[in-house]
Amino acid sequence: MQKNADVVVVGAGPVGLAVGVGLRLHGHDVVVVDQQAEGTNTSRACVIHPRTLEVLEQLGVTKRLVDRGLELQDFAVRSGDRQLIPVGFADLPTAYPFVTMIPQPVTEQVLLERLEELGGSVLRPYAATGLSQTADGADVTLDSGDVIHARYVVAADGMHSTVRELAGLRMPGNTLELSLSLVDVRVAGGLPSDEVGLYFAAAGMLVVAPLPDGSFRLVAEVHDAPEHPDRAFAQQLLADRGPRKARPQVTEVVWGSRFRIHERVADEYRAGRVLLAGDAAHTHSPAGGQGMNLGLRDAVALADALSQALAGDESGLDTYAANSRAEAVRVIGLAHRLTRLANVPRPIRPVRNAVLRLAGRVRSTQNDLAKQLAGFPER
């Protein structure tokens, strides 16, 4: 077990791995630890947006991710077979005018391979159980009893971050009274494989997103969602909320889960030698597929700021903390608005759809939404 490092990163999800890659590219000694025996084998996040692909160029992984993913240029808000708002990415001012559909385990594998190419690795399975800051760094105690001394520590250990709690940082917010069901399914036709669809139905919201292996991700707000959704449940979601004429038939449930929506952002992203990134710093509704994207952009910016700090200038750490928190507040606001719009009271939903259809005819509405989702609203 290594006893000293420039930086200890706790958490080897996409964010922690990206921080590790960025630090290795700067030539720093980084230790990445994770409590899981191996990487996650469920898909969870499944989309990378254009701005994130731009940022990840710095890590040398963008082409690999695009090659292993599914490029989509279209997103649409729909009601049954009726298109309410078409959103195209093809004309965006970027070298990546598309979203890349790619399951989280594949993203993690690409980042891990890059980390290993650069001489890094992940220590598993080790959980951080203690943290104490010193004049020149911090000591991280693992559940094995080992202690690693580092000049800085990155908390990338998720919404229930142990490191964040040990550092005394708060992440207040709300838990919405919404239960979401997430199901990856295979179907016998009937679903478009060239767009992400957000269906606003009387029964509730449904997201339908194609994945590279030919399966589809379904996300729906469901009262008391089942812990393990089955084929009949997924079929009912599509029948009640999806396209009408095509009548897609579910042939297999690949994986499913449920979760509640939390809207939280840390009061501060820094406590001395400890920095927060990803879900340890912010969490929100999956509407718009923004969570992992925000975390990956955190990671690249933080790696740069830490490299600057290791050279003797800590000003970049405070800049990172301020700018990344501001971006998180923006993204949480966007996800909140989309979630609330999708879950207005049932009697109001036909009116909502009529208003959206009118608004969706305006080109500026389409462009604005595309830029918000892509990650660069200011362009």
UniProtKB/TrEMBL annotation:
Question: From which domain of life does this come?
Answer: Bacteria
Ranges where the FAD-binding domain occurs: 5-331
Record bears the keyword Flavoprotein = yes
Q: Which InterPro entries match?
A: FAD-bd, FAD/NAD-bd_sf, RIFMO-like
Keywords for the protein's UniProt record, in alphabetical order = FAD, Flavoprotein
Q: One Pfam annotation, family name?
A: FAD_binding_3
Necessary cofactors: FAD
Q: What is this protein called?
A: NAD(P)/FAD-dependent oxidoreductase
Q: Which species is this UniProt entry from? A: Kribbella karoonensis
